[in-house]
Write a structure and sequence with these properties.
By secondary structure, the protein is α+β, with helices and mostly antiparallel strands. The chain contains 14 helices and 17 strands. The protein binds adenosine-5'-diphosphate. Adenosine-5'-diphosphate binds next to helix 13 and helix 14.
Length: about 525
């Protein structure tokens, strides 16, 4: 009996053990079920991600590349509907035959090496119509748990829009190059720092070098030694200030000869207004320069020939005037010839001024304009000039304001010539104004300044640098209203620059102009 009880006790213990084991297994089972559910939902999420992704995704199984998985995006690109699963790729898309796709898939399937390519053109038949599309894609081998290749995954992006845009850009770049090479001008492109990155064919033909060689050397190598320093300075100024370049420059050709060019450069800016590059054009004007020189020589010659007879006409007119009784209105009325003689005198004076301007101009061209410097009081000199000018310009008030008393060492006549030019222009271009204001003031510790302000027709901003060029006159309907030759300001600028001074102009159309020249002070 005792042993039976023991047996029962043991069995009961065994039953308890089994129950515990069953509970443990049940708990484990619940945990496993939860894990499987978790995995299922992960797989679901992953599937959702793949199916709804913008990426084109498909898996092809076996040697025939049977479509096993194809997400919505790839089915949309194929344009073949939903019933593609389970069919070989080439059966669904027969148009792929002959486009190299099958060969690529075969290769990945057999070698196990993945393949990637960008912007590949593929012709697809979408809704019955052939369409060329561009794709970036990767073919990735798919393996089973034993490591055997069972299929190929295709992950692709439709880059048709971008590829077409790239093609357009390449096409317009090709056209631009063609255009730029076809032009008779020398065109170049430089980066923001001014280093040239492109020269057109005309440039290369001119210097007799190929692109690589010419880009490799500083372009300033072909400048004329006499101009090199000045041009480099002007170019550096344009680069730092973002200003346009517009300058006549001599450039050396393949034979070592220097030829005149008109060189222009302009900055290209991005949306933020920052300079990204510079476009330059250089046009040969050598023949024009030769022609110009011929004209100059001719002008010089006739100016010389005219000067003597015209001066003697003036002398005789003045002699005749001096023989007539002096100013008396009553007597004057009876002297019919006096107003005519006065007119002849004014016209002859204009002619003499023109002749001397012409001669001065040719002196400047030939670097023969010598300055006879002396020390003088600028205020006193200006007063004398304004007094003379007041005498011959009775209809307008010339007002002189002396803000600063100063001595200068300069060519007195030439400085006077500049002031006369400024004042006569101020009077001439103020058809309705009745005041010209002249001011002598201190520009800074080194320079005195003379400003001539009028209330006349004014000058447009774009013309304000042009008017200092030789023979430049502002064109327009009123151009012929004002007599002139466009030499005065050119001469004035040359004279002032030769004194190390500067000329400034401020002007507003319809309101008037303000011309200023500066001149170094004499501190001794
Ligand atoms: P011009 O003999 O024609 O006056 P300038 O060289 O002195 O020659 O001047 C060049 C051009 O600049 C003039 O033709 C005129 O168009 C313009 N100009 C000069 N001064 C003035 C001014 N004070 N007001 C308006 N325009 C002016």
């Amino acid at each position: 009996m005792k042993s039976e009880d023991l047996r029962i006790e043991q069995l009961e213990r065994e039953i308890e053990d089994k129950k515990r084991e069953i509970n443990r297994l049940q708990a484990e089972n619940i945990h496993l079920q939860e894990t499987v559910r978790g995995l299922d939902s992960e797989a679901h999420k992953f599937k959702d991600l793949v199916y709804s992704s913008k990426f084109l995704f498909a898996i092809f199984m076996g040697e025939n590349h049977v479509i096993d998985i194809a997400n919505e995006s790839i089915k949309e690109v194929w344009g073949k509907g939903d019933d593609v699963i389970g069919k070989p790729l080439l059966e669904v898309l027969p148009e792929l035959k002959g486009q190299g796709i099958k060969e690529l898939l075969d290769n990945v399937y057999h070698t196990g090496e993945s393949y990637h390519a960008d912007e590949v053109p593929i012709e697809l038949v979408i809704k019955g119509k052939p369409e060329l599309r561009y794709f970036d894609f990767t073919y990735q081998p798919q393996k089973n748990t034993k490591g055997e290749i069972i299929g190929v995954a295709d992950i692709a992006t439709d880059v048709t829009k971008q590829a077409l845009l790239n093609k357009k850009i390449k096409k317009s770049e090709r056209e631009f190059r063609k255009l730029v090479n076809f032009m008779p001008h020398k065109i170049s492109l430089a980066n923001a720092e001014g280093d040239t990155i492109f020269y057109n064919q005309n440039w290369l033909d001119y210097v007799g070098k190929d692109l690589e060689d010419f880009i490799g050397e500083p372009w300033t190598n072909i400048l004329h030694p006499d101009e090199k320093e000045e041009v480099e300075q002007v170019v550096a100024e344009c680069l730092t200030e973002g200003k346009n370049l517009d300058k006549e420059i001599q450039l050396r050709d393949r034979n070592g000869d220097y030829k005149w060019h008109i060189c222009r450069a302009t900055a290209v800016k991005n949306d933020e207004g920052e300079i990204t590059s510079w476009i330059s054009s250089s046009t040969e004007i050598q023949n024009l320069k030769i022609e110009e020189k011929r004209n100059e020589d001719f002008l010089k010659l006739i100016s010389h020939e005219l000067k003597t007879p015209v001066t003697s006409i003036k002398g005789y007119v003045q002699l005749l005037l001096s023989l007539l009784p002096s100013d008396n209105k009553e007597v004057d009325k009876k002297l019919i010839m006096k107003p005519y003689l006065n007119r002849i005198e004014t016209q002859v004076e204009r002619l003499i001024r023109l002749i001397s301007e012409m001669l001065d101009m040719s002196r400047i061209e030939q670097n023969e304009l010598d300055l006879k410097k002396e020390q003088f009081n600028l205020n006193q000199h200006a007063e004398e000039i304004i007094e003379d000018l007041t005498y011959s310009n009775k209809d307008i008030q010339l007002e002189l304001e002396n803000n600063f008393n100063c001595n200068v060492v300069a060519d007195k006549d030439r400085i006077g010539q500049v002031l006369i030019n400024f004042v006569t222009n101020a009077v001439k271009y103020s058809p309705t104004g009745n005041l010209v204001h002249i001011k002598i003031h201190k520009h800074n510790s080194e320079m005195a300044a003379v400003t001539v302000k009028d209330f006349g027709i004014g000058i447009e901003e774009k013309e304000q640098t042009q008017i200092f060029k030789r023979f430049y006159r502002i064109s327009g309907e009123k151009a012929d209203t004002y007599a002139g030759f466009g030499i005065g300001l050119f001469l004035s600028k040359e004279i002032i620059e030769r004194h190390n001074g500067k000329i400034f102009v401020k002007s507003e159309v319809g309101k008037g102009s303000e011309f200023t020249f500066t001149i170094p002070l004499n501190h001794t």
